[in-house]
Amino acid sequence: GWGDDVVFSTAKVLSNEPAAEGMRSITVEAGDDILGAYTIPGQFVQIKEKEDTKAGFFAIASSPGATPGQCELLIKLSEGSDWAPGNQWLCGSKAGETLIMSPAMGSGFKMEDNFSETGANDFPVQNVLLFAAGSGISPIRSAIESGALAGKDCTLYYGARDTTFMAYMEKFDEWEAKGVKVVPVMSKADGWDGRTGYVQAALKEDGVKLARNTGALMCGMKGMAEEVKEALVEAGVDEGRVLTNF
Fold first, then answer.
1. Residues of 114-145 as b/e, b for ≥16 C-beta within 10 angstroms?
2. Which of 100, 133, 121 shows the shortest CA–CA distance to 7?
3. 127 Cβ partners below 8 Å, 6+ apart?
4. pTM more than 0.70
């Protein structure tokens, strides 16, 4: 299971900046023992405070190989629960401090396997719908910036409470230049003149234009992911092309 025989190494914090309300953008210097395995957007690392403490799981936000020997993480402040450790120590970490980190792991978003002509599906994916809520934008950013979606028609539905809770807004122009239409959706914003409500409702309003060659990537709260998947499958999207990173 998770955590069996994981060999942890040390990594160094290079910077720790605010990314949005309750979120930190942390850049880490890590060796090949950690990042050598990072080849697919959506993979994650485990990080722990001390050798004997429980590790938290964090998706890598920067794309594979973006800056050799470094990766970026988007960390949502968490006070912890019975099943997951709090990460205040990580959100408060300073440049120069060391972290205990696992190699990049997980299968990531299996686009190569699932977005080509597969089995009964003769139509390779041309349209990609991306769904993120809150810090779930982290692995979605990695997919966008990796180049894996180049040449495809992409729309990102990105939900947050309001603009103060939305990380990476400064990257939207860059993502649009890569061919990704960005649709921010705010659930509690006053004075916001864009889309409001939740991403799953925005998807239902817009519909899916050509289900047989559509695929999706998503990361966010369980309820959002379940409703998005249900709406996509109902619209005729092949269930095997609705990908999560865990």
1. bbeeeeebeeebebbbbbbbbbbbbbbbbbbb
2. 100
3. 152, 153, 154, 155, 208, 209, 210, 213, 214, 215
4. yes
Q: Which two tokens stand for residue 178?
A: 């890569």
pLDDT digits (tens, 9 = 90+) for 56-107: 999 999 999 999 999 999 999 998 777 777 899 999 999 999 999 999 999 9
Res. 122: pLDDT tops 80: no
Q: What percent of the chain has pLDDT over 90?
A: 88
Count of CA atoms in the C-beta half-sphere (13 A) of 38: 33
CA distance 168 to 61: 11
Tokens encoding 70: 């470094």
Which residue spans within the chain are E strands per DSSP? 9-20, 23-29, 44-48, 56-59, 70-76, 98-101, 127-133, 153-160, 180-186, 195-196, 214-219, 242-244
